């Protein structure tokens, strides 16, 4: 009996050690997928192919990593809202161009598409610590531009990009005016047990009943559930109810956490939306939802209104 229990114990310890080794060695490869199978790291298409007005932007993160981005404008002199777009984990920004093209047409907005470190033409290797710096570099760049209305910057993140965008929005209440989250997970710890079921016995997020024995090994926790309740800006939640990667209840949990502290939260679901195609199957309803959100929270300031405000600031109405 003793030898049997000893064998069980040794077996359990062996499994734990194997899982630890897996997490230490391969977790970045599990979380970040810069290159889709069968494709190269380089861009397969550029905005020029879609006849979009754009510029290549090169940035330096605060730790010196060279980053690439595309800044696509609806018109050369557009002062419309600017969307800072953060992509999902797999592939690069070129794979999101068709969606962005429609976004620009439907919303009449500018879109800044950042390649995370290790993705596309950006240097470096992806990690939560590094990508957080990349996102900040992109926002700082936009905030310093003189050819856009910097009071109308909106962060849009899908899946992993939602985790990136939520953290950036929380950290920059003076620079980000609103946030859009689509099919985003509560945390990597919660998602790990969904994608790799055996991990749920070792890793767990805030609401998990798992032992959480190996949480300390997770280098990219992306715990959005712990961030979203601290965000003061308006948030739009877009949830595809057929999401095959991130269970839709993750989005509902994020909304519930945010709405408990923030009255400017809106949750909209799309019954046929999957992880990557909610924007496509959502059709007109999807784009009208975003348009209404932007019109409410980053409205266009008419020229006569801005002139009137300027006169008030100068004391013009009292002369």
UniProtKB/TrEMBL annotation:
GO CC term (a single one): membrane
Entry superkingdom: Eukaryota
Family matches, as InterPro entries: AB_hydrolase_fold, Peptidase_S9_cat
GO annotation, biological process: proteolysis
Keyword check for Ubl conjugation: no
Family matches, as PANTHER family: ALPHA/BETA HYDROLASE DOMAIN-CONTAINING PROTEIN, PROTEIN ABHD13
Transmembrane segments: 7-26
Designated name of the protein: Peptidase S9 prolyl oligopeptidase catalytic domain-containing protein
Keywords annotated in UniProt: Membrane, Transmembrane, Transmembrane helix
Residue span, Peptidase S9 prolyl oligopeptidase catalytic domain: 132-297
Native source organism of the sequence: Salix purpurea
GO terms, molecular function: palmitoyl-(protein) hydrolase activity; serine-type peptidase activity
Coiled-coil annotated residue ranges, if any: none
């Amino acid at each position: 009996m003793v030898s049997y229990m000893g064998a069980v114990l040794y077996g359990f310890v062996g499994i734990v050690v194997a899982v630890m080794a897996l997490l230490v060695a391969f977790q970045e490869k599990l979380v970040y997928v810069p290159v889709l199978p069968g494709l190269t790291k380089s861009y397969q298409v550029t905005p020029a192919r879609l006849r979009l007005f754009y510029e290549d932007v090169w940035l330096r993160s605060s730790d010196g990593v060279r980053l690439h981005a595309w800044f696509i404008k609806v018109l050369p002199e557009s002062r419309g809202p600017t969307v800072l777009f953060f992509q999902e984990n797999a592939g690069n920004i070129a794979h999101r161009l068709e969606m962005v093209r429609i976004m620009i047409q439907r919303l009449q907005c500018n879109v800044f598409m950042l390649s995370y470190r290790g993705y596309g033409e950006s240097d470096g290797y992806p990690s939560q610590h590094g990508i957080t710096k990349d996102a900040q570099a992109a926002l700082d760049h936009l905030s310093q531009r003189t050819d856009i209305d910097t009071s109308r910057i909106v962060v849009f993140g899908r899946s992993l990009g939602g985790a990136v965008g939520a953290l950036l929005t929380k950290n920059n209440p003076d620079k980000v005016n609103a946030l859009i989250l689509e099919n985003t997970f509560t945390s990597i710890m919660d998602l790990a047990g969904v994608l790799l079921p055996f991990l749920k016995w070792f890793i767990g997020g805030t609401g998990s009943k798992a032992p959480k024995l190996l949480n300390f090994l997770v280098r990219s926790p992306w715990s959005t559930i712990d961030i979203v309740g601290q965000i003061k800006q308006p948030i739009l939640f877009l949830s595809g109810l057929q999401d095959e990667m991130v269970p839709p209840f993750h989005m509902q949990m994020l909304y519930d956490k945010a709405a408990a502290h923030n009255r400017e939260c809106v949750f909209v679901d799309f019954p046929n939306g999957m992880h990557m195609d909610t924007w496509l199957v959502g059709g007109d309803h999807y784009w009208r939802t975003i348009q209404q959100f932007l019109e409410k929270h980053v409205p266009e300031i008419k020229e006569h209104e801005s002139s009137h405000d300027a006169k008030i600031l100068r004391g013009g109405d009292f002369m």
